[in-house]
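User: Predict structure, ligand zinc ion.
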Amino acid sequence: MDFKERKEARIEHYEKYVKGWKNRPCIACNGSGYYDHNGSPRCGSCNGTGKEKYKPNATETTEKTSKTT
Ligand SMILES: [Zn+2]
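Assistant: Predicted complex:
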């Protein structure tokens, strides 16, 4: 894999997984990363991070395709 391919892969990853995504406190554990305070397992929803990603503009992606009249 040369530099150009790596760069393209990075851009693709960014477009897919980073761009337009935001973090918010996990709903399942209320941002703590655990279900409760007494040695309980990590939250399965956020994997113990206390955050989850969401895409606020997920429905806008197919909008710009057909505007050539
Ligand atoms: Zn959680």
